[in-house]
Design goal:
heterodimer, A: 345 residues, alpha+beta, Aminopeptidase, 2 domains, nine-stranded mixed β-sheet, four-stranded antiparallel β-sheet, 30% helix, B: 258 residues, alpha/beta, seven-stranded mixed β-sheet, two-stranded parallel ribbon
Chain lengths: 345, 258
């Protein structure tokens, strides 16, 4: 087994990465260009670690090298060694509810654990004595079991909202919901359709979007709802969104007022099995925003999911009670903390 | 006193601003990381277009990205820097009254010399009480300076009593693409604030302790050395105006030549 570490800011695409990306059916945030763009505009940039055998890449890890938040700065440019203690997080920063590790389809469940241990040993060697440990975020139950072991802390921390798509249309989905929610969604859909003051546009690779306006809305929304504790991510900038929203595998739904002002925005990462609702930002009602747009965005997401015939739709980790009323099931996600002494064991 | 050491310190302050913007401000981070820049080069091999300078209109449009990671305001300060440049343009000090002419969005400057009083007047709809106060100050022999563009100055003068209007000291506000030969004037940009003034030598002097400028292929690029947020580094005002920065033969400090 051979382990490689690739800094997407400056290193070329790893050999065999496009093939692995397709075979492992990864979300667009795993695209090497997107990781590079994200890495340049992040405090804790992702590094792509790959484990390969003779046939090609068999496992991939998105590793964030995290520094204590002493100063508000982007990460040092490639080539700088970290002098202070730091930790690594295996996660995909903007893919809520999915882990930061992936395996080729031919890797059996029993083979995952040794591959993870190979990766951990290489990571320890690569990052040097300053590495305190590794935190795996947003693991499913299967990966959580692979990370069990002496000295490792594996814990269910949260849940991700998942809606299994067994519907032929969004109307069928709405019909399956409890009566009160059903009526509310239908009223909401009629109200927005009849409102000439709201223009709803959705689609992939949107060229017409003003990324500065989108970033303002998303950042404002996140600030109003408070920062998550121990959040190592950097808010998406207009510069990042300018390139990201133009990708053909990123769908953007916008609600615009009659005056051209953006009222709400929602991005959805396309995927053949499980599209993921990603960023959401809305203008507060007291500043001219509209009520109920979040629910309408779920109707649009389900319309897309049912037309595409995907297996499931995921909608992140927030507001689980509200999402339960929309038919979403809470799938538990786990975190695993692996201190340095047991890395690779 | 402009010496080799001061020149080196001026350039060092600029290079610090560039490195700090690259390390903390999303707009410059993305631009200089992916495209590149020169003087200094931050990512080896990436030299960018126009030496990394960005059109000011584009920067202002993405003002959300001009705020550093630590946070800060997104508000533009068009009156920034008026105090220091007014000292150079008209030797303002003491008991003067400065009338800044502008529309609704104009805010009074915060950096006028101690003792100088300021008011903002919309020349198209001047408040009678303000005109009365200005007129009274002129009658008492107090210095009154009006800062605005040519049209605003003319309208303001016409609103004052004829026998006193001539005593108002006009300070014409010029933009980079409308600079003239004086004898008085301040160099202004609606987003960057006041950048310099005509001094007694008749040349457009930069407010160099606060502003850095350098020629690029896209035009003269300006940097505000002391403004944290929104951060302006190597931006091209007025769509990019060709020019150069040279030492003044009389003072030695940098002047703008277009």
């Amino acid at each position: 087994m051979k382990t490689g570490f690739h800094d997407p800011r400056t290193d070329p695409v790893p050999v065999g990465w496009p093939e692995f990306f397709r075979a492992a059916r990864l979300h667009p945030v795993w695209d090497y260009d997107v990781m590079g763009l994200d890495a340049w505009t992040a405090r804790n940039p992702p590094v792509l670690a790959t484990v390969s055998d003779d046939a090609g890449i068999v496992a991939a890890f998105s590793v964030l090298v995290c520094r204590p938040r002493l100063r508000y700065r982007f990460a040092p440019t490639p080539g700088h060694r970290l002098l202070r203690p730091f930790w690594a997080e295996v996660c995909q920063p903007w893919l809520s509810g999915y882990p930061g590790l992936a395996f080729a389809p031919e890797v059996a469940a029993a083979d995952r654990r040794p591959l993870i241990r190979v990766f951990e040993r290489s990571l320890r060697r690569r990052l040097g004595p300053g590495l305190l440990g590794v935190l795996y975020r947003a693991l499913g139950q299967d990966f959580a079991q692979d990370l069990q072991g002496r000295g490792r802390l594996v814990k269910a921390v949260d849940s991700v909202a998942v809606l299994e798509n067994r519907f032929a249309s969004e109307d069928e989905w709405i019909a399956s919901l409890p009566k009160s929610r059903r009526g509310g969604l239908r009223r909401q859909r009629r109200r927005i359709a009849d409102d000439p003051g709201v223009v709803v546009v959705g689609g992939a690779g949107r060229e017409d979007l003003d990324s500065a306006e989108v970033a303002t809305l998303i950042q404002g929304h996140r600030e109003r709802h408070g920062k998550l504790p121990l959040d190592t991510r950097t808010p998406p900038s207009a510069a990042f969104l300018h390139r990201f929203l133009r990708r053909p595998d990123v769908h953007t739904l916008t609600y615009t007022g009659a005056d051209g002002r953006l009222l709400a925005v929602n991005t959805l990462l396309d995927h053949p099995d499980s599209p993921a609702k990603q960023h959401w930002g809305t203008l507060p009602v007291e500043e001219g925003g509209r009520q109920g747009l979040l629910f309408d965005s779920y109707i649009h997401a389900m319309r897309y999911a049912t037309r595409r015939g995907v297996k499931e739709l995921t909608a992140g980790r927030g507001l689980p009670e509200l999402k339960a009323t929309l038919g979403f099931r809470a799938r538990p996600v786990y975190s695993a903390a692996v201190p340095r002494p047991v890395l690779g064991w | 006193m402009w010496t080799v050491g001061v020149n080196a310190a001026w350039r060092a302050a600029y290079r610090r601003s560039v490195r700090s913007a690259f390390a903390t401000v999303p707009f410059y981070r993305e631009r200089w990381a992916l495209d590149g820049r020169t003087d200094p080069v931050l990512v080896p091999g990436r030299t960018g277009t126009d030496s990394g300078a960005a059109p000011l209109a584009e920067a202002v449009h993405k003002i959300v990205d001009l705020v550093p990671l630590a946070g800060g305001v997104q508000r533009i300060e068009p009156s920034r820097g008026l105090g220091p440049v007014l000292r150079k343009a008209r030797s303002v000090s003491g008991d003067a009254l400065v009338v800044v002419l502008g529309g609704d969005g104009t805010r009074p400057p915060s950096d006028l010399p101690r003792g100088v009083r300021c008011c903002v007047v919309d020349p198209d709809v001047p408040a009678p009480s303000v005109l009365a106060e200005v007129s009274s100050a002129l009658r008492r022999g107090r210095r009154v300076l009006a800062v605005g563009d040519d049209k605003q100055l003319a309208v303001f003068a016409a609103a004052l009593p004829e026998d006193r209007a001539y005593r108002v000291e006009s300070v014409p506000r010029r933009e980079l693409d409308t600079m003239d030969t004086g004898p008085y004037g301040v160099l202004h940009d609606p987003a960057l604030g006041y950048l310099g003034a005509i001094e007694e030598c008749g040349r457009w002097h930069l407010d160099w302790p606060r502003v850095y400028a350098r020629p690029t292929t896209g035009g003269l690029a300006f940097t505000l050395l002391r403004q944290d947020s929104p951060r302006f580094v190597d931006v091209l005002p007025a769509g990019g105006v060709r020019g150069e920065i040279a030492p003044c033969p009389r003072h030695g400090t940098p002047v703008v030549l277009t």
